[in-house]
Design a protein that fits this description.
323 residues, mainly beta, five-stranded mixed beta sheet, four-stranded antiparallel beta sheet
Length: 323
């Protein structure tokens, strides 16, 4: 009987695996841009950068020669200062150590005010000059998070805190009072904010399940299962779990879209036009008007760690400029 159950289980597993379908384009081209080594591997990443195994980091400014303290991971490069954490109880601002007693997962800096998101979903503002916490708020604990955690955003006299439970708390940078609570995603399990940006005075934010835009007092909400989101100029680009690439305006009105059957996208980048990295080893290049595309063979493994800044895509221990 035991052997029969094992055989049945094996048949069911084999049948499930055999039904799994993959993106298989008919016509592909040889990739025409060269990759270059960064001499170290990405070991962890967030929305603002990546930690390399040699202790250096990648940010929007490229690969830094600066090494972080041993055992620390990169959080952000903010006002020219490196923010890093031991994912336990400390954060470094350049060489200044701050004991937080909680694991920091995201942080930004402006005018010596350090805005922090902690792993217990508390948020706080820390004054580096006085060495004290000037604001702290506890939110509902989040048990599971997407690793692409967005950092706080300083916007004029406001601090936008992206939370791990799908909200953005808007805090006055003058009296440190909460002035608004924007709910992005209150439904899904992995609902931390993975993207936070201001495009033409419009706030764009996303969880892995929803995208919002807030501008001129108007809130727009769209539901997508996202694999990535980027902005270029006034346009927003979305890659979805079901193989869609979507171009919207800042109000999230769909301008163009393409569907690639069974495609699984890992990252978007904008070089001379839009690029999408696909899991089976393809790089798709879509024209600005979405009327044409080119599909390139591209060396990529699903286990590789990927982070993108503008026209540069970093993959494991290499990078490629898509412009």
């Amino acid at each position: 009987m035991r052997h029969l159950l094992i055989l049945i289980s094996a048949i069911i597993l084999f049948s499930a695996c055999s039904k799994k379908q993959y993106f298989e384009p008919e016509d592909t081209l040889s990739f025409n841009k060269s990759t270059k080594s960064i001499d170290s591997y990405i070991v962890s990443f967030n929305r603002d950068g990546a930690t390399l195994d040699n202790g250096q980091f990648i940010s929007a400014q490229g690969v830094s020669s600066i090494k972080m303290p041993e055992g620390f991971q990169f959080l952000n490069l903010s006002e020219g200062k490196v923010l890093s954490t031991n994912i336990k109880d400390k954060i470094y601002v350049d060489k200044k150590e701050i004991v937080t007693n909680t694991a920091v997962v995201a942080a930004s800096l402006k005018d010596d005010i350090l805005a922090i998101v902690n792993s217990d979903n508390s948020i706080m503002a820390y004054d580096l000059r006085d060495g004290k916490i000037i604001f702290k708020e506890y939110l509902t604990k989040s048990l599971a998070n997407d690793t692409r955690i967005a950092a706080p955003y300083f916007m004029q006299n406001l601090i936008l805190f992206p939370t791990l439970d799908g909200k953005i708390l808007v805090v006055s940078a003058q009296n440190y009072k909460v002035v608004r609570n924007i709910i992005v995603d209150a439904d899904s399990q992995f609902n931390n904010i993975i993207y936070l940006n201001v495009v033409n005075d419009t706030l764009i934010a996303a969880s892995s399940k929803k995208v919002i835009s807030v501008g001129d007092g108007i809130l727009n909400i769209k539901q997508y299962d996202l694999s990535d989101i980027i902005a270029h100029g006034k346009d927003i680009y979305l890659a979805t779990i079901d193989g869609q690439i979507i171009k919207t305006d800042i109000s999230l009105n769909v301008m163009n879209r393409k569907k690639y059957k069974f495609a699984k996208f890992y990252a978007l980048a904008y070089g001379d036009s839009l690029y999408a990295l696909e899991s089976q080893g393809y790089m798709i290049n879509i024209s600005d008007d979405f009327k044409t595309d080119k599909i390139y063979d591209f060396s990529f493994d699903e286990e590789d760690k990927v982070i993108v800044f503008g026209d540069t895509m970093y993959i494991n221990d290499e990078y490629v400029k898509l412009k």
